[in-house]
Structures are given as C-alpha cells and as structure tokens.
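Batch manifest line 244
LIGAND: adenosine-5'-diphosphate
JOB: complex structure
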Amino acid sequence: MSDAAVVITGLHKSFGPREVLKGIDLTVPRGEVLCIIGPSGSGKSTLLRCVNVLEEPTSGTVVVDGRDMTDPDCDIDAARRSVGMVFQSFNLFAHLNVLANLTLAQRRVLGRSKADAEKVALANLEKVGLAGRGEAQAAQLSGGQQQRVAIARALSMDPDVMLFDEPTSALDPELVGDVLGVMRTLAAEGMTMLVVTHEIQFAREVADRVLFIDDGKIVEIGPPSEVIGNPQQQRTRDFLARVL
Ligand code: ADP
Ligand code: MG
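JOB STATUS: finished
ARTIFACT:
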C-alpha cells in the first residue's frame, strides 16, 4: 500500500450553481497532521466531508488508503470505516451512557461482541482521560468531556485517518485545552489527522503542514513555520492578522 493516506485529485464540489471547491489537489502522507485554516465559508467543512464522501464530489477523485471513494464500484461503507470523524457538535446519543455510545457502532457495524466492544471502548476512554466515566449519561458530561467521548468513539472503530471539523469551536474556553491535549497525544502516536481549526497555536505546534484555503482553492500549504510564521500570500497574511 502506498505511503499516502489520502490522495485528492482535481476535486470540485458545487451546490447547485455555487462552486464551493474549485479544484483541490492534495496528498496527505500516512502519519501526517494537516491543519486546515481559512475564512468562514471558504470550503473547509466541504473539503473534509468529501474525504469520507459525506459530500459527493462533483468531479475529481478522493482516494483513502488506496481505495477510490469516488469509484461507483467502491464499497463506500467499508471505505468509510477507515475514516473517523469528529464534529463541532459532538453528535453523541444524549440519552445513552458513555459506554453504549462507544460500543454501538462497533457492534452494529464491525460485528464485535459486547465484551470485545467494551474492552476497546474502555481502552479508548482511558486514552481520552475519561476512565471510569463509562456509566455516565452522555448529556450529563461537560462539552469538553462529550467531545473527548466523541473522539474515543471514533477511535473505537480503528480508523486509519481521523477528520476533525472545528472540534473545539463549541466549547467553553476552559475546556478547549483537554480536547487539544487528546489530539496532541493522537498526533504523537502517529495518527493521520486532518484538522479544521481556528486554534492557530495548536496548528503551529502540532501540524506537520498547514493548509490555508480561501474561496474553494488552496492558497498556501506548507510547514507551520512557513504558512503561519512567514506566509507568502497576502490573503494568508490578511486572514492570520484577523485571527491571531
Ligand atoms: P467552511 O467550513 O469553510 O466555513 P463550508 O465548507 O461549510 O465552509 O461551506 C462553503 C460554502 O458552501 C458556504 O457558502 C456554504 O454556504 C456552502 N454550503 C455548504 N454546504 C452546503 C449545502 N449542503 N448546500 C448548499 N450550500 C452549502
Ligand atoms: Mg466549517
């Protein structure tokens, strides 16, 4: 298998007459942490959602783990299993306890036994710093804890790639650090991660590369020391001046 986790070629995405992604070419090597920054409405979420085909590309190809997600013959459900996604809004089953949230898809989608699923769930709860909270009702946890449960849930499916769409944007400021800490740990363990974030400091410290997108096009991509530390494009400089 190639060293690339994700290969995006000539990706265009339109919603009706509105073209939101205007030709994206991007290769993400295995183990890379890529942070995606850019103005609101620039196409960040759409780009991320095209990676696991939550949005179907209008044209172009998206290959994940050597599987062409855009090939009509591709088993999308199988391919999607290798991609974990964490949203701004957690999307937990509020009425279920934490353990049930973590075991449901493992059992239904992967066909794991209850015992196996619980073992995986408990290991991942520990990884996100929530050991012992398995019996808590999801809705009773803080936002930061819920987001860490959402990360543990995604990890419990053994993904090869993790997508994060503004995972800390809905959190009270004092809860952001714990979630970013879990993401740092994952990055250090070598997980391939595509992270849409406004946390420029996190991007500076954790990203291998930073991608600045504006108006559906990649404006600049490179190491944080370049894209954040010494941006070459005026649009990147203007954006950073607004968020830093
Ligand atoms: P970002 O995440 O960078 O803020 P998005 O990818 O969410 O941007 O959206 C880019 C543009 O695409 C926006 O103008 C948004 O309104 C539009 N858009 C996103 N999803 C849809 C959709 N399902 N239908 C129509 N327009 C959409
Ligand atoms: Mg978005």
